[in-house]
Specification:
Blueprint: H1 8-23, E1 33-38, E2 41-44, E3 60-63, E4 68-69, H2 80-89, E5 95-98, H3 102-109, E6 114-115, H4 119-123, E7 128-129, H5 140-149
Antiparallel strand pairs: 1-2, 1-5, 2-3, 3-4, 6-7
């Protein structure tokens, strides 16, 4: 079906991944979000809902045009735009995970790339991890800059 109504296991996986982000310390509070590609759009974490309260039914379905449906009155993450734009522009990508690890946040504030000090950076496909310039959260400008950095 693809509308997110018949994919409870995938929705549950998103909830569990969000909780693991917090447990591992790469996220604080309700910051960060996950978007996962499905047949006719994406499944996306809702805005402002603490992960320990989130259920599979809270995950928002968004179609490729940016229209969305959700139960419980949830709205998509304020960062929905870059999830949608990245997944549309890069069909080989199955998911976008946006987190706020402390040291990565510091490097981003300082506008510094993460140098290739670990082999996993090469596995990710580059010589370093670039830092996109600052733009206000949730804006088309941030989406454009994030996509350009990728």
């Amino acid at each position: 079906m693809g509308t997110g109504r018949d994919d409870r296991d995938l929705r549950q996986s998103i909830v569990m991944a969000c909780r693991e982000m917090t447990a591992s310390g790469i996220n604080q509070g309700t910051s960060g979000n996950i978007g996962v590609r499905v047949d006719d759009g994406i499944l996306l974490t809702p805005s402002g809902l603490p992960y320990d309260q989130m259920t599979p039914e809270d995950i928002v379905f968004m179609n490729w045009e940016g229209g969305w449906t959700a139960s419980e009155g949830n709205v998509p993450s304020t960062e929905w735009r870059f999830h949608l734009d990245i997944l549309k522009a890069k069909p080989e990508v199955g998911a976008v995970v946006h987190a706020h690890p402390t040291y990565c946040t510091i490097l981003a504030i300082m506008q510094r790339r993460i140098p290739a000090i670990h082999y996993m950076i090469a596995v990710a496909g580059g010589n370093d991890i670039p830092c996109a310039p600052y733009a206000q959260y949730g804006t088309a400008e941030l989406s454009r800059l994030a996509l350009a950095a990728l």
